[in-house]
Amino acid sequence: MSVWAIGDLQGCYDVTQRLLEKIRFDPAVDTLWFCGDLVNRGGQSLETLRLVHSLRDSSVVVLGNHDLSLLAVGARTEEEQRKVNPDLLRIVQAEDRDVLLDWLRLQKLAHVDRDLGWMMIHAGLAPKWTTQLAEKHAREVEMQLHGSGYRKLFRNMYGDKPAWSPGLSGYDRSRAIINLFTRMRYCTPRGRIGIEDKGTPGTQEQGLYPWFEVPGRVERDLKIVCGHWSALGLTITQGVHAIDTGAVWGGKLTALQLDTDELRVVQVPGRDVPKPVSAPRPPARRPASEGTSEGRPARQGGPGQRDRHRGTGRPTPQVQAQAHPRNADVTSDSE
């Protein structure tokens, strides 16, 4: 019997199947923990959602921001639904959409197994949240998701503000909780999220810190596994195990075994992402002696092309292929 946490799938069905084969997953005895963002961008979101739904008796799921977006889309009118990207549109137009979306809506924002010693979330925790407080606040939103008023929650869910404060109430409180659990990467010591900062540490606005390194944070009594922040690569620090390694961007899909004292990581290559087409070379200049103008050649691969991922949360291949933590048992396909 093994317990495996798996990073963001984001609609990468074929990649997910390869990883399950590599860890030799047996649904009769093993358990999977999915760190959220099951869907979107990978092109096979319907197949991926059906797969995870079929494994529901041997898996645990926490909701990510893309999962909540799918649920919000599913609660809209058909006319509004037709405006979404084709990957999500296939889900909301599928014959089994109600079965899939009703099941997804009943999943958690945080999962805790104190006997195992682990907590699973999608993105992050407020600096002053203990694991007990995090569970409490997750349940607040889960009650709304699981109740009859979930459509109203979806209509009021979007927005970057307010920052978390214990005195918040109503949908402001729910929105702040959701943003922490599903959107956070950086924050201030007082818990304000740096929503626009999505790159690697060192690129963020002054005064922001990775949520797991922010000064003044509380000590937590459980190890934490999470996804969401693909630009980090595989990162294990401060009791936090961040395992979104950018499968949807051509990185890797990562599984981390939770029920062992050893650090065991298994990875498979992510989705095939077409390489960007290089700009054509400019015509060679004729020598000035031939009477032609000496116009400067067009510049190729300028900053806008080289750094097109910067600040978007889309890691470059170099970021995705980060070195593994020291002393880790890492198994990775090279296919």
UniProtKB/TrEMBL annotation:
Entry-linked InterPro entries: ApaH (IPR004617), Calcineurin-like_PHP (IPR004843), Metallo-depent_PP-like (IPR029052)
GO MF annotation: an example: bis(5'-nucleosyl)-tetraphosphatase (symmetrical) activity
Coiled-coil intervals, chain numbering: none
Keyword Nucleotide-binding on entry: no
Family in the record: Belongs to the Ap4A hydrolase family.
Originating species: Stenotrophomonas maltophilia
Function: Hydrolyzes diadenosine 5',5'''-P1,P4-tetraphosphate to yield ADP.
Segments traversing the membrane: none
NCBIfam families tied to this protein: apaH, PRK00166.1
HAMAP family: ApaH (MF_00199)
Keywords (A to Z) from UniProt: Hydrolase
Protein's name according to its UniProt entry: Bis(5'-nucleosyl)-tetraphosphatase, symmetrical
Listed Pfam families: Metallophos
Catalytic reactions of this protein: P(1),P(4)-bis(5'-adenosyl) tetraphosphate + H2O = 2 ADP + 2 H(+)
